[in-house]
Amino acid sequence: MTADPKPTVLILCTGNSCRSHLAEGILRAAVGDTLNVQSAGSKPAGYVHPLAIEVMKEIGIDISHHHSKHMNDFLNQRVETVITVCGNADQACPMFPAQINRYHWGFDDPAHATGTDAEKLAVFRRVRDEIKRVFEAYAAGRCDRVKLNADPKETKVTCHTLQVFDPAMCCSTGVCGPGVDTKLVQFAADLDWLKDQAVMVQRHNLSQNPAAFVENHTVQATLAEQGEDALPLIFANGKVAAMGRYPERGELAGWFRLSATATAPAKSDCGCGGGTC
Fold first, then answer.
1. Contact, 170 vs 272, CB < 8 A?
2. Which of 12, 190, 206, 219 stands the most exposed, by the fewest C-beta atoms within 10 Å?
3. Is 277 contained in some domain?
4. By residue range, what is the domain housing residue 106?
5. How many domains is the chain partitioned into structurally?
6. Residue 250 lies in a domain
7. Do the domain assignments include residue 3?
């Protein structure tokens, strides 16, 4: 009897030029030969972005040989897991033969970065690092499952995500300006705690990263309807979980079925110096 081929994990985004190639390279490096890792797009751009190649080279992963592919190329293949890394691909994603798992982990599109070459490169590095954190956690889960000889049809790897869209502020730590905002200090500590529980945390400040607000259609619609009073807007696993307020640790833990442990708020330094920005 021939052994089953290794499972195929297909990573999708719209253009298959940046995010999906970053994820493909990182996941392939993390899992080695245990998975067949591929990427594709719903509207492939036809090239891999040069800055994506550059920032991956910085961490020792070569994706210069990657090429842009259409997701329909995989419709007749046995795809075990589909992971979408942008909203458009999630909406356009078809069902594939033998598909068991489907995940959506959204990331900012670094191709939309503006400014100097150095500023664009900084955005690519940030998105690369966010993707690296999520996909290496996913890879670790897959490897643990293989070690336990678990049946993939019965066991799913879960990677939780939390996105925070903050109002315009000097910084999000709570220690800037003339006084200390204890709620923000505690919330920053709670986010660090979530990261320790392997939750992928993304935080966007309206004054520092307005592009993230523009790219998220739900955030756009909410701001158009309710204005900035709706901020902070907080998403847990892609769904709005809180609006206009910062949740406490117990509530955060409940969203991800975690056990909240009480610890003192960590001191945070935004680097402003002298207690002011």
1. yes
2. 206
3. no
4. 8-147
5. 2
6. yes
7. no
Same domain for 93 and 185, yes or no, is no
Most distant CA atoms of the chain, gap in Å: 72
Cβ atoms 140, 146 nearer than 8 A: no
CATH (domain of 176): 3.40.30.10
pLDDT digits (tens, 9 = 90+) for 200-225: 788 888 888 887 788 788 888 999 99
Residue that finishes a domain, picked among 147, 177, 200: 147
Give me the residues paired with residue 83 across strands.
11, 103
Angle at 194 between CA 21 and CA 175, to 5 degrees: 105
User: pLDDT of 85-142, one tens digit each?
Assistant: 886 655 555 666 666 788 888 888 999 999 999 999 999 999 999 999 889 888 877 7
- pLDDT, tens digit, for every residue of 13-41? 988 999 999 999 999 888 877 789 999 99
Decide: 99 and 71 in contact? Cβ < 8 Å.
Answer: no
- Positions marked active-site: 13, 86, 93
Query: What is the CATH classification number for the domain harbouring 108?
Result: 3.40.50.2300
Please give the Cα distance from 44 to 66 (Å, whole number): 13
Helices (H), the chain: 19-31, 50-58, 87-92, 117-147, 182-196, 210-215, 217-226, 249-255
